[in-house]
Amino acid sequence: GNSVTQMEGPVTLSEEAFLTINCTYTATGYPSLFWYVQYPGEGLQLLLKATKADDKGSNKGFEATYRKETTSFHLEKGSVQVSDSAVYFCALSDQNSGGYQKVTFGTGTKLQVIP
Amino acid sequence: EPEVTQTPSHQVTQMGQEVILRCVPISNHLYFYWYRQILGQKVEFLVSFYNNEISEKSEIFDDQFSVERPDGSNFTLKIRSTKLEDSAMYFCASTQTGQGAMPAFFGQGTRLTVV
User: Fold this and answer.
1) C-alpha distances in angstroms, B98 versus A5, A52, A103?
2) Which of A108, B15, B33, B41 is the most buried (most CB within 10 A)?
3) Of the candidates A31, A94, A106, which has its C-beta nearest B42's C-beta?
4) Measured between CB atoms, does A3 come within 8 Å of chain B?
5) Which of B43, B44, B55 lies nearest to residue A100, judging by beta carbons?
6) Chain-chain contact of A100 with B98 (C-beta, under 8 angstroms)
7) Are B104 and A101 a contacting pair at CB < 8 A?
8) CA distances from A105 to A33, B15, B37, B113 (A)
9) What is the CB neighbour count within 10 angstroms for residue A35?
């Protein structure tokens, strides 16, 4: 079956530091890849996506590139802010044999940015 | 921007009681999902629903769980006899199509506490 592995947190960074959160996946088909973010007390928000190999998703200064050769989708940001403090989930979406989508999530990585 | 809405935001119930969690998916979406997140753990797939029937369910989704779309807008998750281990955040999601490339839009979640 499909699976997603993320680096464990928490990750603590100073403001303006460079962020990398590693994510690798295992999938039998050709999945789409996503990063979701969960701010404290809130639900899951789509941060960015990539639907095929070599696609780069980007949003709010965050980027991730779909690397099929390394089955990875690492999240990066050049300069984090305190407001980026949240839990980040790497996820893949695939269609099952019946043609229905299912999202498989990683365990989430908590990011804390300190001033 | 259209969004998925869930009610209530927090529900406390006694063990053995029935609970119904409610969701209003995005209006032109056709596929609906429930996921859950036990505190500190990963987000897990429960069930997908299309054309008024379950399309896939996980091993978590046993006979105590049921889903329904009682009218044109609501999508509900019922737990017949709650157990302590059902305590979790439950997320409803919807997608426009079943394609894996289509991102799932999640609600804010309902935090269920079974005492």
Assistant:
1) 24, 17, 11
2) B33
3) A106
4) no
5) B55
6) yes
7) yes
8) 10, 28, 10, 23
9) 26
Residue B27 has φ and ψ, to the nearest 5°, of -65, -35
- Considering only CB atoms, which chain B residues are within 8 Å of A45? 106
**Dihedral class, residue B40 (left if φ above 0, else alpha if ψ from -120 to 50, else beta):** left
pLDDT attached to residue B22: 97
**Positive or negative CA dihedral for B92, B97, B99, B103?**
negative
> How would DSSP label each residue in B51-63?
TTEEEEE-TT--T
Chain B residues with CB inside 8 Å of A108's CB? 42-43
pLDDT recorded at residue A29: 78
Report pLDDT for B87. Answer: 97
Mean pLDDT on A30-44? 89
If one counts every other C-beta atom within 10 angstroms of the C-beta of residue B81, the result is 12
Q: Which residue has the higher pLDDT, B79 or A97?
A: B79
Q: Dihedrals φ, ψ of A29, to 5°? A: -105, -140
Closest by Cβ to A107, choosing from B42, B48, B56: B42
